[in-house]
Amino acid sequence: MAPAAITLSTPQDLALSGRWAARFMDALAPQLELLRLPAASAVTADATGVEALDTSGAWVLHKLLLRLRGEGVVVTLRGLRPEFAQLLDVVAQHVADQAKLPPPLAKPSASALERIGRSAAAAAQEMVALVNFIGETASVFAACVAHPVRLRWRPVLYNIRNAGFDALPIVGVLSLLLGIVVAYQGADQLRQYGANIFVADLVGLSMLREFAPLITAIIIAGRSGSAYAAQIGTMAVTEEIDAMRTIGIAPLELLVLPKIIALVIVLPLLTVFADVFGVFGGMLMARAQLGVGFPEFLDRFAKAVSITSYLVGIGKAPVFAAIITLVGCFQGFRTKGGADSVGRQTTRSVVQSIFLVIVADALFSIAFSVLDL
């Protein structure tokens, strides 16, 4: 089984030999590169040595003949078996037909208005899908309330530990630093007016009403919300969710509901934890920059911050928890393809969770202002 070969025995004689098939043509490429014939010469290509010819070999042979004729060489092919010659004619006809086809039209680039419209339509479709997902989750939750035995408490406890207890260090550190920053930024202004003691009002109201629940929700969105999207997305890619449906396990009941219940429980507790560390950070900075001791700070803090302000901050936490969990799980279920899709949906879950948490916080502020809370 000799591979395909081209031999120039004399300047007028070209010998073709071997098996001109796809698997035997590895050595032919360098021979074609080295083959150079003088222009306006006449060459006879002897193909009696060709042992086999398939469509790949016929295409290469046809291209060789076209190249030589394009260089002004008169090539005469002889000795090719009739069945090989017929295949060569078919390939030549196909190449000629392809050359007659008009070039494909370039797809026009989308205008800015079209891109905006497509993005708006995709966002609207995703919003509708999210609303449907929330409805399905609510239906599953109602079914579990009607039949409490269906609720899986072990995943709930696992998520409480994972999203709550394990998040205490990062929540505490960032809340402490945030309290220090708030007190430090207000120290200069308060010192100018001799109102050092009002740093307790500044730190207490800002931390308890806004910063503590908001910073805690953002931390959990980046920490746990992304984990939910990555976990469910990986299960979707590996078809584990389809397997669960096949054996009769509802994915929402096993994967989504325990996470929602766990986060609704732990996020208010984490917010209280953040309140404590944020106020403590403000106390440290008030003592260092304004000369306000701990007893004076706490005395003013008890007078300035009402129980309503404390409950306002705590009341936001369950809503933030539901948003983070629903968006993270929703984006996880929308994962399709491979690892790239998992990363993309995880990023979307974090961005959308933080965006919706801030929007919800703004709506809470408007509502509380209207209600004079």
Quick rundown:
By secondary structure, the chain is an alpha/beta fold. The chain has helices at residues 28-34, 55-70, 82-100, 112-146, 153-163, 168-192, 199-237, 240-246, 251-290, 294-304, 307-333, 339-370; strands at residues 5-10, 13-20, 42-53, 74-78.
Structure description:
The protein has 373 residues and is α/β, with parallel strands linked by helices. 72% of the residues lie in helices and 8% in strands. It has 12 helices and 4 strands. It has a 4-stranded mixed β-sheet with strand order 1-2-3-4. Helix 2 (55-70) crosses helix 3, helix 5 (153-163) packs parallel to helix 9 (251-290) and helix 11 runs antiparallel to helix 12. The longest helix has 40 residues, at 251-290. The radius of gyration is 37 Å and the shape is elongated. The model has no long low-confidence stretch (mean pLDDT 86).
Backbone structural class: alpha/beta
One letter per element, helices H and strands E, the order comes to: EEHEHEHHHHHHHHHH
Total of helices: 12
- Give the overall form: elongated
Total number of β-strand segments? 4
Measured as a percent range, the helix fraction is over 70%
Mean pLDDT across the residues is 86
- End-to-end gap: 92 Å
Enumerate the strands of the largest sheet in spatial order, edge to edge or round the barrel: 1-2-3-4
Q: Could you tell me the radius of gyration in angstroms?
A: 37 Å
Strand content: 5-15%
